[in-house]
Write a structure and sequence with these properties.
- There is one protein chain.
- By secondary structure, the protein is α/β, with parallel strands linked by helices.
- About 70% of the residues lie in helices and about 10% in strands.
- The chain is built from 17 helices and ten strands.
- Strands 3-6-7-5-8-4-2-9-1-10 form a ten-stranded mixed β-sheet.
- The longest helix has about 55 residues.
- The radius of gyration is 32 Å and the shape is elongated.
């Protein structure tokens, strides 16, 4: 009972020390509970695409739990550092290490209970609010969120494990230190670090390789394969940048007599140099968290905005009615039967036939391409789509007449300078390139897309047969790998007609000559379920990363303020004016706290090409839109970062000027 009472008094009297820790634990508990409640709530089953949404939520929950461990642990270790002197006094006054550990246990238990109560209340309240936002993002109409008891229990269990880990940290700290070392622990200063030339070189090399990987990617698949390598190199390179390069630069500044022996430079350089070993890790953490915020929010917002345009490009009219087979005439007959049976008005409709082949499409120095490719490469993989000149004219395109061995090229996505194609022995001469093909539905895909307009349906069928003959040679098994020709009607229908027609289309995927009815509304709803969930997860992760960065900045200001207080007092006693002290403080704070945001922006700028290629996986190719969204994201996060800096710097000034 004595230890419980003492622990309660410690929290009450030192609440200013405990409050940042409580803020961290409560915030992370609430965020974890929100995602957990959304992921496991039965209300999610009332939404379309519940399985995909639930998977996204669980993925986001796993990341949030990981960062909860990191942020809460970082916060508690700072609290321990602030209280080591207090533990040392307990030891001198007669309490042994086991008694001190008991006090720490009760303190953690009480903070856990406070976190549990406050976090549960906030989590459940904000769950309802954020569920409304989430449903709006995915275009749903079910707004009643039921509380998931398993989600609440899971969150409590996770944080019980985290607090058990914190208790382990406390026990190790108390056990490893004597009373004298505990008394001195939070006043120990760093020795001046060595120049670390090797670390500086490694940092530059790692960041250079990461930037090269990001800037040199040619396609989405290559970007996907290299993304995680680049991320690891940037993270390690960032830590080495602050640990090695910053110290190396500060050493050079100190060696420069004309620069170093000025009051503002002397104080700033000396102060940063002696503490850069611990300072560097905090700055690197902030940089990585801010960069992750940039990437997460910019990617999710660009994806959410861009897919709406992608869906619109897939539907020149609001409904596509299609069928696939090996014979165009049979396709048309089956489609006409379906249309007549359902009284579809096709007076203003348009139809076209096409086939698409996914293959390696390499072009030699003579601007010639040959299939099959002799030496296939990943970056050469592309979707080759073939349509007829007559169909494209019906869709509103003005195209010249073509002979049987001629084609018109439209580079839908990708850029290859090609003048002729050897199509399995049939030579196609590219007589013209067009910048676009009106009313042709966009082909969604990860790879480059090239559309070839050939003379007529006979030529289209011949080219498809040549491709299928090659597939038969390569695949002698029972599985049919042949490519079918798709015939599609593009038509505008009323909402009621679309609903009726969708229900009448056969659902058996194994049924031959299966008619497929796709509507713009249903496609948009389906894709918004995914992108809306992605944006929501990105928003939650962004909040977590910013919270982590803010806490680190706050702790840096407090710890550095306490360390600098004595130094600045001594400098004033030997003749430094308050104006000079203020100027020196401003210089140091500006350098230390604006360095991470500048480095983060450089990291993101280098990664922009790779990020845009990753977004291309979803068919979004509007670089201007991606750049605009990225710029706005950087601006908003930078403003938030500046506000955090202004707020926390006031704490630093108050501590130093006391």
């Amino acid at each position: 009972m004595f230890y419980l009472k003492l622990a309660f008094q410690n929290i009450r009297k030192s609440f200013s020390n405990f409050s940042p820790f409580l803020l961290a634990t409560t915030s992370m508990f609430a965020i974890t509970l929100i995602l957990s409640n959304l992921a496991f709530s039965k209300s999610l089953d009332q939404l379309r695409g519940a399985d995909a949404v639930r998977t996204l939520m669980k993925f986001g929950l796993a990341i949030i739990v990981l960062f909860s461990v990191i942020i809460v642990s970082y916060s508690y270790r700072f609290l321990l550092k602030q209280r080591t002197r207090e533990f040392g006094l307990y030891n001198i006054l007669g309490l042994n290490k086991r008694n001190i550990a008991t006090i720490s246990f009760w303190e953690l238990l009480m903070t856990f209970v406070m976190t549990l109560v406050a976090g549960t209340i906030l989590g459940l309240i904000f769950s309802e609010f954020l569920f409304l936002i989430f449903v709006h993002l995915i275009g749903g109409n079910y707004f009643n969120l039921t509380v998931s008891i398993p989600a609440v229990l899971l969150t409590i269990l996770v944080f019980a494990a985290i607090f058990a880990l914190l208790m382990f940290f406390a026990m190790v700290t108390i056990k490893r230190n004597s009373a004298i070392s505990l008394l001195k622990d939070n006043t120990r200063s760093e020795r001046e670090p060595r120049g670390r030339l090797i670390m500086s070189i490694l940092s530059i090399l790692m960041l250079a390789v990461a930037y090269y990987l990001a800037l040199s990617v040619q396609g989405p698949i290559e970007a996907l394969l290299k993304f995680f390598i680049a991320v690891v190199l940037v993270i390690i390179g960032t830590y080495l940048l602050y640990i090695g390069v910053t110290i190396f630069v500060l050493k050079r500044q100190k060696a420069n007599k004309s620069y170093y022996y000025k009051p503002e430079h002397f104080i700033t350089t000396s102060s940063m140099l002696y503490r850069m070993k611990t300072n560097a890790v905090g700055l690197a953490n902030i940089t990585i968290l801010v960069t992750m915020t940039f990437v997460t929010l910019a990617t999710s917002v660009a994806l959410y905005v861009g897919v709406q345009k992608v869906v619109a490009e897939q539907f020149p009219k609001n409904t596509n009615i299609s069928i696939s087979g090996k014979n165009i005439d049979e396709n048309k007959a089956a489609l006409n039967t379906f249309i007549q049976e359902n009284d579809v008005d096709t007076s203003k409709a348009a139809s076209y036939s096409s086939f698409t082949v996914m293959t390696n499409f390499s072009v030699n120095a003579d601007k010639q391409a040959a299939l099959p490719a002799n030496s296939p490469k990943l970056n050469d993989y592309a979707a080759l789509r073939f349509v007829t000149r007559d169909d494209m004219v019906k869709l509103g395109n003005d195209l010249p007449e073509l002979a049987s061995n001629q084609a018109i090229l439209y580079k839908a996505f990708g850029d290859k300078d090609v003048k002729s194609v050897d199509w399995f022995g049939e030579k196609l001469e590219i007589v013209k390139e067009v910048p676009s093909l009106k009313n042709l539905p966009k082909f969604p895909g990860v790879f480059d897309v090239f559309v070839f307009v050939v003379s007529d349906e006979q030529e289209l069928t011949k080219l498809n047969d040549l491709n299928n003959q090659e597939e038969i040679k390569k695949n002698t098994g029972a599985v049919d790998f042949s490519t079918q020709i798709s015939t599609e009607w593009l038509v505008n229908l009323s909402a009621k007609e679309r609903e009726v027609l969708s229900k009448k289309a056969p659902n058996d995927v194994n049924q031959p000559n299966r008619v497929i009815v796709a509507t713009e509304k249903e496609s948009k709803e389906g894709i918004m379920e995914f992108t809306g969930g992605f944006l929501f997860i990105g928003f939650m992760l962004g909040i977590t990363f910013i919270l982590g960065a803010a806490l680190i900045i706050y702790y840096k200001q407090i710890s550095e303020g306490a360390e600098d207080k004595r130094s600045y007092r001594i400098l004033q006693e030997v003749g430094l004016t308050k104006k000079e002290v203020k100027k020196s403080i401003d210089s140091q704070v500006m350098v230390v706290f604006f360095m991470p945001i500048i480095v983060s922006i450089i990291h993101f700028a280098a990664a922009f090409v790779m990020i845009s290629k990753l977004i291309n996986i979803f068919g979004i190719t509007d670089i201007g839109m991606i750049a605009t969204v990225s710029g706005i994201t950087i601006l908003v996060i930078s403003i938030i970062y500046y506000l955090i800096y202004r707020k926390t710097s006031k704490i630093y000034y108050r501590i130093v000027e006391r």
